[in-house]
Write a structure and sequence with these properties.
The protein is of the alpha/beta class.
């Protein structure tokens, strides 16, 4: 149920905030007052098209927000699959991980003068498509605006299933059908793979053997690079070490750093006996002497162990070549780490295991598919049978309501046709074996034709009103809006429409734009839309009216004169008779 709607700088609406109540609410006002602007703002909020033309002249952005009460949550214990098709607002929110409080949710949307737009469900930013999908569980708008679900043939099946109480059963069928499609795709992959199965097994075996025999180790390629660099640079390395050793220890009669530092250390120790202030420098000199001596010993030891082994260098280079060739075959590039080759071998072993056991898996898969096909076909036939029984009752109910709504000669039919296919292709889809479409003949002598192609705005609204009347007990949509429902009607038909809207509103929130007082007097609530011009600017105002203000508005709708005593008296009498006010 729509609880409140806030509109700022949308079209001709400067700033409007309206609270909505349960039951039947009419929106009235003089022609051109902007009644459709309110529905336009709501349509925008629910995911309709956006554009800078929606922004009020002189403003920088248009903002619309609304609070919706979602009703009682009956889905909290229902197990939802990852590919579940939500059947109500709660399930949609749960599937998308969007929280709500006290079974309420705030929708908000804006469009700016630079063309940028945004939308939120609660505190979560969503796309226009997501907003539209969610709002389809909140409001149905019928008439000249976008939410004309009757114009979408795909929706007809949902209406019939809802009427027949098949919604959950069809949802379960969809999951069963999805499992069958998945298994068939798996089998097709098996069949395609079998054509080159032997070749793939041979290639995988070769790769596994080649990599396994290499006995690769993680990080081995880097270790080999370091070793090869050392061995290839032996002469220069040996020369560098000899130079360092000679400088530090001395050679050919020369005095090395260690010897020189030893002499300096002796002099320093003697100087300390004369001036204790030199003690800290002497200690540092001691430390330097011991550290340098240790370094010299390690260089000497390294030099003594430095032996050039051309055979070992050849082995290292041979191993490098082997790893290079393996990387070229099995890694992303020759510069990739050797771990990629090791991973390739592990993956190849897994694939090989699958291929080698494919015969057993294939037979098992065929049995699964055969059993799923049996279940799917059986369920599809059962659903189809239930639909056909419900279709007749539904058509009869719609015709009965249409008769009282000024369409006495109308014929309505729910056409159920078996899906197309061939003997080799199962004629079943994700929702069963049927294609469902509503057909109508609004005039005597005319054949039944698709509703989506021939119904006018007024006829479409009355057909929807008929459907909503008989579906009221099972339809999850909490709010319905009817625009242009009074097109081309009056008198007793208008009174009948008002009565039906009133009855429908006992189970759903109903909003209706109307010019007819005979419909408006049935409403529980009334909102007046008025257009004013102030300081050269046109503005539309939206106000909830009651008491004498409502009497005056009904009087205006009756005769065009809100001040006539006769009109006012007539308006009071009608309100008292039809709305109890």
């Amino acid at each position: 149920m729509l609880e409140d709607l806030s509109i700022k700088d949308f079209a001709l609406i400067d700033n409007a905030s309206v609270e909505f109540k349960e039951g039947f609410t009419v929106l009235s006002g003089e022609t051109g007052a902007g009644k459709s602007l309110l529905i336009g703002a709501l349509t925008f909020l629910l995911g309709g098209k956006s554009g800078v033309e929606l922004i009020r002249t002189g403003a920088h952005e248009a903002i619309v927000s609304g609070t919706f009460y979602l009703g009682e949550n009956l889905s909290s214990k229902k197990e939802l699959h990852a590919d579940s098709e939500p059947t109500n607002a709660f399930e949609w929110l749960d599937i998308h991980g969007i929280p709500y409080e006290e079974n309420r949710i705030l929708l908000r949307r804006f469009v700016r003068e630079n063309g940028k737009s945004g939308a939120w469900i609660g505190d979560t930013s969503v796309t226009r498509a997501e907003l539209s999908a969610f709002s389809s569980f909140l409001i149905d708008i019928h008439g000249q605006h976008e939410h004309q679900s009757l114009m979408k043939v795909a929706e007809h099946r949902k209406y019939l299933d809802s009427y027949a109480g098949l919604t959950d059963k069809v949802s379960d069928f969809t999951h069963l059908y999805s499992a069958l499609v998945s298994k068939r795709a798996e089998l097709a992959e098996f069949n395609n793979d079998e054509k080159d199965r032997e070749q793939r097994i041979e290639l995988l075996n070769f790769a596994i053997k080649e990599i396994s025999e290499a006995k690769l180790k993680p990080g081995e390629d880097k270790e080999l690079d370091d070793e090869e660099n050392k061995l290839s640079s032996f002469e220069k390395l040996y020369s560098d070490i000899e130079t360092i050793t000679s400088i530090m220890e001395g050679g050919e009669g020369g005095e090395g750093l260690v010897s020189a530092l030893k002499k300096i250390r002796g002099v320093s120790q003697h100087s300390v006996t004369m001036d204790k202030n030199l003690e800290s420098l002497n200690q540092r000199l001691d430390s330097a002497f011991y550290e340098l001596s240790d370094i010299a010993d390690e260089y000497r030891s390294y030099s003594q162990g430095l032996v050039f082994d051309p055979e070992y260098l050849a082995k290292v280079q041979e191993r490098q070549t082997l790893i290079y060739n393996l990387k070229k075959k099995y890694a992303s590039s020759v510069s990739a780490p050797v771990e990629e080759v090791i991973s390739y071998c592990e993956d190849a072993q897994k694939k090989l295991a699958v291929l080698e056991s494919s015969s057993e898996n294939k037979e098992s898969l065929k049995k699964e598919i055969s059993e799923l096909e049996r279940q799917v076909y059986s369920e599809a036939k059962a659903i189809s049978a239930a639909r056909k029984i419900a279709a007749e009752k539904m058509a009869s109910g719609v015709v009965g309501v249409l008769s009282s709504l000024g369409m006495a000669h109308t014929r309505f039919s729910v056409n159920i046709a078996e899906k197309g296919g061939t003997d080799s292709t199962q004629k079943i889809g994700p929702y069963g074996i049927d294609d469902v479409e509503f057909l109508i003949s609004a005039n005597p002598g005319q054949p039944l034709q698709p509703l989506a192609k021939i119904a006018s705005g007024g006829e479409l609204s009355r057909v929807m009103l008929s459907l909503k009347t008989i579906l009221a007990a099972s339809d999850p949509v909490g709010t319905m809006i009817f625009d242009e429902i009074d097109t081309g009607i009056g008198g007793e038909v208008a009174v009948s429409i008002g009565s039906h809207l009133k009855n429908l509103a006992s189970k759903r929130q109903v909003l209706c734009i109307t010019h007819l007082a005979s419909i408006a007097v049935y409403a529980d609530n009334q909102i007046k839309i008025k257009k004013d011009v102030a300081d050269g600017h046109t503005q539309t105002h939206v106000n909830v009216i009651d008491g004498e203000d409502r009497v005056a508005e009904i009087a205006r709708m009756l005769s065009g004169d809100a001040g006539s005593a006769a009109s006012l008296e007539h308006a009071r009498a009608m309100l008292e008779k039809f709305s109890g006010r």
